[in-house]
Design brief:
Blueprint (H helix, E strand, L loop, with lengths): L4 H18 L6 H14 L7 E8 L1 H6 L6 H12 L5 E4 L12 H20 L3 E8 L18 E2 L8 E2 L1 E4 L3 H4 L3 E4 L11 E3 L1 E4 L2 E4 L1 H10 L6 E4 L3 E4 L3 E4 L5 E3 L6 E5 H12 L15 E6 L7 E4 L2 E3 L1 H13 L5 E2 L2 H18 L4 H26 L1 E2 L3 H16 L17
Parallel strand pairs: 1-15, 1-16, 2-3, 2-16, 3-7, 4-11, 5-9, 19-20
Antiparallel strand pairs: 3-6, 8-14, 9-10, 11-12, 12-13, 17-18
Helix pairs in contact: 1-10, 1-12, 4-5, 4-8, 7-9, 10-12, 11-12
Length: about 425
């Protein structure tokens, strides 16, 4: 069966076309997506780091200041950041404390700390605070619609964008009056999180997410400068076009260069700056940059973004903000590339019938390794990821088929005449 080279070539072409189709459908497409994450994390990049610095609330910070934090810790963050004159200061945490659930003694301290926090937020140039959209406990009695920034320049089908009917949590009004609110909702739990919402819907109206609000602050734009086309792009004036899916989500480039320092390092650097000494954190990491305060401790790393890798919500936000700042938008290779792979493997199928079986397996294995190395290099220059299921699947199929069937003897494989009978 399939003794002729032409028959084997046709079989390989048919298998390749099937793999092309199936590799773009769930759940198999997740393997190619995982390969794209591998390329993003491991490819060498040219260019500077994104102008966002994650101020990490790590294990060391929580050892001195146990979670949950009071308004005092957040006040310390904004105070320490002030001296470096960042472009904006942000936190995805909801700055709200219920005094009814706190003891009177602690409540009095919280009230004092809230006043201190409010003063430092007022002194900061730009502040972004986290909030959460949700649903009312009683669907028959929805809460009144609250005022929030809206995006009016919208075209296309909005049905894929998640809709909410209540603001589930947001900062106290005293803090909201001198800051901008960003909704920090994430997609429903999935095996791996690769995208992040840029827009959501609140009572049918399109509203910006935490990440999009951060970008608008960085670009010095307003929601009137935003145009949304679900499944196509989000345009920010004439500066950048962000590709999004039907749900209004952008793919995150986890390999984008970005800075990070600890909360305690920021506080120490602020004290050193005031005393005219060299700072433990380079000033260029903080001055004129977007500072994002977020948890990064082990307990907060609940989101899987690649096989064997987890991150906190704040780390996802920092990577997403850096993705847009550096215009680091990942894209898949066009369909003609897949057809090219099928064509190459068809030629390999024709040639391998004249190779020894061991040589066939070795050549295909080395070819796959070379393909991965070239894919990493190619991604580093173009931010274009190529499939792995198609070439690896065809290589495996050809190797197994070659092992299971006899080849065609060539003049190089034939024994010398003196040994022939």
């Amino acid at each position: 069966m399939f003794q002729s080279g032409a028959q084997f070539m046709i079989l390989v072409a048919l298998v390749g076309l099937v793999l092309m189709r199936e590799s773009r459908q769930p759940p198999i497409d997740g393997l190619d997506e995982g390969f794209a994450d591998f390329l993003a994390i491991n490819a060498r990049r040219a260019g500077e780091a994104a102008p966002v610095t994650l101020v990490a609330i790590d294990e060391g910070s929580l050892k001195e200041r146990p979670w949950p934090w009071t308004p005092l810790e957040y006040a310390i963050f904004f105070q320490a950041a002030e001296g470096f004159k960042p472009a904006a200061s942000a936190t995805n945490e909801v700055l709200r404390w219920d005094l009814k659930q706190i003891s009177p003694d602690a409540g009095r301290k919280v009230s004092q700390y809230q006043k201190i926090l409010r003063e430092h937020i007022l002194r900061s140039s730009k502040v972004l605070l986290g909030a959460q959209l949700g649903y009312p406990e009683d669907s028959t009695m929805p809460p009144p619609v609250q005022e929030t920034p809206l995006i009016r320049n919208v075209s296309g089908d909005l049905s894929g964008i998640p809709e909410f009917t209540a603001i589930e949590a947001q900062a106290d009004e005293d803090f909201r009056l001198s800051s901008v609110t960003g909704f920090a909702n994430l997609p429903l739990p999935a095996r791996h999180t690769r995208t992040i919402p840029l827009v959501l819907r609140y009572h049918g109206q399109v509203v910006p997410s935490f990440v999009l609000q951060a970008i608008l602050m960085w670009e010095k734009l307003t929601t009137d400068d935003v145009t949304v086309e679900p499944g196509v792009r989000i345009s920010l004036a004439d500066r950048v076009q962000i590709p999004i899916d039907r749900e209004g989500r952008m793919r995150i480039d986890f390999g984008v260069h970005r800075r990070r320092c600890g909360f305690d390092d920021l506080v120490l650097a602020s004290d050193q700056l005031e005393n005219g000494r060299d700072t433990i954190v380079p000033r260029e990491w903080l001055g004129g940059k977007m500072l994002l305060l977020a948890r990064t401790d082990a307990a907060a790393k609940k989101t899987s973004f690649a096989p064997g890798r987890t991150a906190s919500v704040g780390e996802l936000f920092a990577a997403a903000i850096g993705t847009v700042q550096n215009r680091s938008f990942i894209k898949r290779a066009p369909p003609w590339f897949d057809y090219g792979i099928v064509g190459v493997m068809v030629l390999v199928a024709r040639a391998c019938r004249r190779w020894r079986k061991f040589s066939t397996v070795l050549i295909l294995l080395l070819g796959t390794v070379a393909y991965v190395m070239l894919a990493v290099t190619f991604f580093g220059y173009t931010l274009t990821w190529v499939p792995i299921i198609l070439p690896a699947g065809l290589a495996l199929f050809i190797a197994l088929f070659r092992i299971a069937t006899p080849g065609v003897e060539s003049k190089w494989d034939a024994p010398p005449k003196e040994y022939r009978h």
